């Protein structure tokens, strides 16, 4: 994890997180351990729980606990254990957290609902997932967000790397490790052509699969079409496909009705954050038999003998069934650490109780920390070129409206401002807006 180690080295003496008390709720794996150690090295105190009941690497949690870090997590927690663990991170003797590092919004949710007085003392929230960010914007819209929050998910260094490149590799890894499927010639439907969906499609197409996409957004549907995929409704392909993968961040995308129509042996899994994309509960009826064939792999059997192969009970398949590349996690972890440092050290007034994107300069910094790994040599602008382009030679090198950010993230930011709802064009800050966080970041 070169970026996070470089950050540790560069900021270690300054201790920019001294006095920060961070409640962490993320996947607990080897890479998270490096992040936790880094935050502590930078001066923070932490208490940590898992954001997913199946993704914890027990040996890592044990090693962290053995080293003295308060970590509350194990693989295979019940729903009740899950909330108990987060509770343990929030409420402890002589402990008033002042920062939250969340992945999915559960720590934020628990504090807001159960420990509201404590929540009001929080200085900042850093949120990693699409789902958690969505909840933060909803809270902000409802006027219930009393602290500033950093939307790390839509940082280009997160979305374009973790969601896209990491999923491109780990979807294959997780399907291979949990089934013996041969990909060539298989028909696959991927629900959602966002960053995660795009990564999965690239990988599966590369291995010779015939890939169908379902989408609700015409822009993503057009992208999928122009990338050579057929965009269909799920009902139109569900009887023929061999693999169904959800990657929408939405709920009930695959319903019992769809699963009733699937063919024998169809593999069903989810790459989205929460376990709501596939309606797994609808499979817990007396007419269906569940057979656990191995860890994270269930056969669900219909009365006529048809079976579907359900992976990780509809939870994140790659984090449940495979490992993810450390390099890409380093990019996300460095982004998270910088977001924590920024929120914790920001002078009063820089951030209000709203949801912010990390300034582009920081995204560029995170990227630059990782370039030495590839022996990549950046070209420097000449004075003349910098003047011609209207750029500072040290960056940022792109305006914030540059389409490294997805249109969707612009829309989310703008959705909070009624004046931006006038027309579709005005959704896009490129044309009209002068004042939103996307157009005018506080640097
Ligand atoms: N598995 C992983 O390692 C991993 C990594 C990053 C993100 N995620 C999670 O994956 C999910 C997707 O992330 P993303 O970055 O691709 O988000 P995204 O917003 O870029 O893409 C989601 C896409 O799904 C589409 N969609 C929504 N509802 C739909 C429906 N009912 N049918 C079809 N399409 C629908 C949206 O239009 C959008 O294009 C999120 O829950 C995110 O937290 C997982």
UniProtKB/TrEMBL annotation:
Q: Can you cite a GO biological process for this protein?
A: S-adenosylmethionine cycle
Q: Which reactions does this protein catalyse?
A: S-adenosyl-L-homocysteine + H2O = L-homocysteine + adenosine
| Gene Ontology cellular-component terms listed | cytosol
* InterPro entries named in the record: Adenosylhomocyst_ase-like_sf (IPR042172), Adenosylhomocysteinase-like (IPR000043), Ado_hCys_hydrolase_NAD-bd (IPR015878), NAD(P)-bd_dom_sf (IPR036291), S-Ado-L-homoCys_hydrolase_CS (IPR020082)
Q: Name one GO molecular function term.
A: adenosylhomocysteinase activity
Q: In which pathway does it act?
A: Amino-acid biosynthesis; L-homocysteine biosynthesis; L-homocysteine from S-adenosyl-L-homocysteine: step 1/1
For the ligand (NAD(+)), the binding residues are 194-199, 215, 318
Q: Which domain of life is it from?
A: Eukaryota
What Pfam families does its record include? AdoHcyase (PF05221), AdoHcyase_NAD (PF00670)
Which residues belong to any copy of the S-adenosyl-L-homocysteine hydrolase NAD binding domain? 163-324
Q: Which PANTHER family match?
A: ADENOSYLHOMOCYSTEINASE (PTHR23420)
Family in the record: Belongs to the adenosylhomocysteinase family.
Q: This protein is called what?
A: Adenosylhomocysteinase
The taxonomy runs: Eukaryota, Metazoa, Ecdysozoa, Arthropoda, Hexapoda
